[in-house]
Structures are given as structure tokens and as C-alpha cells.
# Entry
Amino acid sequence: MVTTRDPVGLALASIAAGATAGASVITGGMILLRILQGNQGSAGVSTAFAVLTVILLLGVALAVVTGWTLTRTLQETWRRGVIGALSFFGTSLLAGLSAPVDMLGGRLGLTAYLTVLLVALVATLRAARRAAAR
# Structure
């Protein structure tokens, strides 16, 4: 297995990339839910629950898989697992910010927050790839 000379930089960038990827999916799901609620007047509780459950599971899975796959140059499997778990917690923190953004800014605020998350995702993916190539 190939190793990297910058494992700390790779780990930090991979955690950030995983966290922003998962939070982007969850925030995008919040926007989708608000659009559905606006079109239907008030989405049913079961519909809202189903949409939120699927979006949360997809966001968490994407965070863990992103953190895991970006660190494929690390030899220790346990480190890759820890990075995936920290990506999950980062996603939880970043996605938790979407609730106050939604309350303060509505759909427009969520869209702006999603844009910020996507820009951060691109930057952290580049940083992780650079750290892996060193």
C-alpha cells in the first residue's frame, strides 16, 4: 500500500471534506423539504419524516464514505475508520447549523448556506488530494 508523507494534512482535509459533503446533502434535503411543504401547503408528518430520514441517512453515509475513501493511502484501517467517524460528527455539527439558517433566512438562507458548503467541499477535496499526493 502506498503511504503519504503528510498523514495529518490528509486526515484533516478528509474529515473536512466528509463533513461538508454530508452537510451539503442534508442541507439540500432541507431545501427539498421546504419546497415540498410550500407546494402542498403543509406536508404530512409521515412525508416529512420519510424525507428527513432518507436525507439524513444519505448525508451520514456520504460523510463516512468520503472520509474513508480519501484516506486510502493510509496503511492503518483503524485510522481510516476514525476519520470516517469524525466526518460523521462534523456533518452533524454543520447540518445542525441549517436549522437556525432556515429559521432566519428561509429557503434563500438555506440556498446560500448550501453554496458555502459546496465551495468548502471543493476546497477540502483539493486539499485532501494534494496531501495524498505528497
